[in-house]
């Protein structure tokens, strides 16, 4: 209602007053300039520009809030987009969406701006913060901050932060929304929200789920799950599952399962099981049985006198140019360029895991974890590792790669 009255008032004044700049005092703090460049002062700190004119800072407060209305999103004093006010957090989304004001959080969506006024948003509903309507703005629900609907950035539930669900933390970034569910922390940063880094999704630090850096998927730091670099898949460091480097599949380091190098399949290093070179043929090394070729078009490597398709402390089998990851001593089998993960010694089928099996291969997508496994690879995304392993961490790590997006 406040929002509607505000806009009506501005338009009314514009229609009535032509060449005379008029100040309209509202609520003892708000004045509206008309005639080309009107600014609306709110509570000695906040001014709102209307009708494409530039906004005017009042009271010389550098941290004061100013909100652009009608086309422009919001104008920061320092040519930045979003404005911080009163130490409250402000989440920028895709070139200046929402503006934080006085600890109360409001979400800007699709150029529809709302103005924070003294701790309560505009279009105040039921003592909650604000309710944006018209297309895909946001809806206030149950004294929570704000709920994005249809478009649809983030959903506030139960008095938590922005995109907050059940006391978890995550933040909506660049129209790609991630939703926290069930106190699992996505892109948790030391109990805080998540940190945006260079347009990337989120950064985990200390406790260290995943760190988004420069469009790459995710980088594990301290606890060392996996490191994303330059669009490559993932790099294990210290504990050393596998290392993705420059389009190559994976490189084992220290414990040395297999090493992917420059399109070649895999090279075993240090305990020297097998060496994949150039096109997915494999060479047995160190008294292993033989090299499997053309069995279900799956190429697997014999290791240490065991059968082919080694299970339990075997390394892993490269199949059809895709890479696969050893998980929990279990074997995994590559099928049809897709990537599936063997978990807990369970058999691995071309499309479907059987017997307490965790993952299901589906149409070129990587793998869909089921039953305490937690990660879901979808549409050429990266993650694989399960149980204390890499990206798509399972058991207290919990990020999910989906559709090439970073992690949710």
From TrEMBL:
According to the UniProt entry, which residue ranges have a biased composition of type Acidic residues? Answer: 24-60, 91-105, 124-135, 161-183, 241-255, 265-279, 309-321, 356-399
State the source organism's domain of life.
Eukaryota
Region of interest (Disordered), ranges: 24-408
Listed Polar residues bias regions:
113-123, 184-198
Instruction: Fetch the PANTHER family from UniProt.
Output: DISINTEGRIN DOMAIN-CONTAINING PROTEIN (PTHR35245:SF2), PTHR35245
Name-wise, this protein is Uncharacterized protein
Which species does this protein come from? Pleurodeles waltl
What is the organism lineage in this UniProt record? Answer: Eukaryota, Metazoa, Chordata, Craniata, Vertebrata
